[in-house]
Amino acid sequence: MDFGGLEVTWLGHASIRIRTGDGTTVLIDPWLEGNPGCPESEYSQERVDAIFVTHGHFDHVGNTVEIAEATGAQVHAIHEIAVWLESVGVENAVGSNKGGTVESVAGIRASLTTAVHSSGISGEAGIVPGGEAGGWVLEFPDGPTLYHAGDTMVFGDMSLIREIWLPDVAFLPIGGWYTMGPQQAAMAARLLEVETVVPIHYGTFPILTGTPEELREAASGAFDVTALEIGAPTG
Length: 235
Description:
6 helices; 235 residues; 15 strands; alpha/beta; Metallo-beta-lactamase, Chain A
């Protein structure tokens, strides 16, 4: 799979690392330590310039706080999560909201989209509000446009994401139970009219039963399904 000059690494579950040609490194939903699928060698990240959080659940906020403290990474999240991140010591939290586009590191344009899901943040006091769940569209200068859907079911306004941002690649959850499964993900890909889908959020736990093979069958050749190997850079 050619990601238009980007190096893309799946770190298990919904965690994605993207590295540009000049070494700029971003993480999406970096749940690393404690993630059954993430190699132990990836628990510590040497360089991270920006982190994008889709919503407040533990398996998506993950190790954001620790990574931001260790690397100084800029952290992008919906306003409520950004405020929470600041409250626990993250210095470079950037809050935005759905429909807004912000310029991140290295000229990356980042747009927060909707998602149909919940977004509570678990902590010592129980679950606190985390705003609403979302997805991220990342537009790379002179490169592709990537859409990470976060956790969601299929929804009709994915066609608006297509019209507004024209994503080239979609990272879509397929595990089922907490998100859409392969059949809904195939419908989402058709609404988005992307050429390539990278399946995420599957296989981490037995309850997440959807598979890339089921997605390929549901695709009926309408789009390419690129199932990445955890920890193996692609691009």
